[in-house]
Write a structure and sequence with these properties.
The complex is a heterodimer of chains A (about 110) and B (about 120). By secondary structure, chain A is mainly beta. Chain A is about 0% helix and about 55% strand. In chain A, strands 2, 4, 5, 9, 10 and 11 form a six-stranded mixed beta sheet that branches. Chain A has a five-stranded antiparallel beta sheet with strand order 1-3-8-7-6, with no helix packed on it. Chain B is built from no helices and eleven strands. In chain B, strand 4 and strand 5 form a beta hairpin. Chain B is globular, with a radius of gyration of 13 Å. Classes of the chains: A mainly beta (about 110), B mainly beta (about 120). Chains A and B meet through strand 5 of A and strand 5, strand 9 and strand 10 of B.
């Protein structure tokens, strides 16, 4: 049973455009929602994370939007750049658990 | 601080053989977890160790095992290799106890190919 559903599986965006990746979860006990970014040949790295007591968190061009009632959260990449081309994973975990549940990933390609 | 180090980076093995992968966590991190990454399944959790004890286990057969040493370094072993075991194996470390939701720090993985 996949507890975190991520879409789309792949995404192609033009340079300067907005990239949007969506995730939905089922377990209402989740209380921490990180996003990881993975470049080819590298391991995933934490990009940004949010807790359900806020509806939005912004760090530079990256924004997480969180909708607790809908059990959904999304990553928005503003002014997308070719250097943003990577695979993005959303995840969710429960406080006290050190093992996040990952979405299946989104391969983002930003064309110059 | 040095990051998470995984060795070797690449391995080619034959069906039926066994393999051992190694992971050195970030200094001070006591939790080490292992993931299998494949194009179709994404990141699949294998197991997590903390203070030399397996604390969590994913849904993988008993051919997959691991251990953690007193210095927090960890090894993962896969016995009787199958073609389907070909994947990128990622190790991640975190602070563990007393640090709820501490982020995972991943190594660059070991690419295992089974022929």
């Amino acid at each position: 049973q996949q507890q975190v559903k991520q879409s789309p599986q792949s995404l192609i965006v033009q340079k300067g455009g907005i990239s949007i990746i969506n995730c939905a979860y089922e377990n209402t006990a989740f209380d921490y929602f990180p996003w990881y970014q993975q470049f080819p040949g590298k391991g995933p790295a934490l990009l940004i994370a949010i807790r359900p007591d806020v509806s939005e968190k912004k760090e530079g061009r990256f924004t997480i939007s969180f909708n607790k009632s809908a059990k959904q959260f999304s990553l928005h990449i503003m002014d997308s750049q070719p250097g943003d081309s990577a695979t993005y994973f959303c995840a969710a975990s429960i406080g006290g658990s050190y093992i996040p549940t990952f979405g299946r990933g989104t391969s983002l390609i930003v064309h110059p | 601080k040095a990051g998470v180090t995984q060795t070797p980076r690449y391995l080619i093995k034959t069906r039926g053989q066994q393999v051992t992968l190694s992971c050195s966590p970030i200094s001070g991190h006591r939790s080490v977890s292992w993931y299998q990454q494949t194009p179709g399944q994404g990141l699949q959790f294998l197991f997590e160790y903390f203070s030399e004890t397996q604390r969590n286990k994913g849904n993988f057969p008993g051919r997959f095992s691991g251990r953690q040493f007193s210095n927090s370094r960890s090894e993962m072993n896969v016995s009787t290799l199958e073609l389907g075991d070909s994947a990128l194996y990622l190790c991640a470390s975190s602070l563990g106890a007393g640090a709820n939701n501490s982020p995972l720090h991943f190594g660059n993985g070991t690419r295992l190919t089974v022929t």
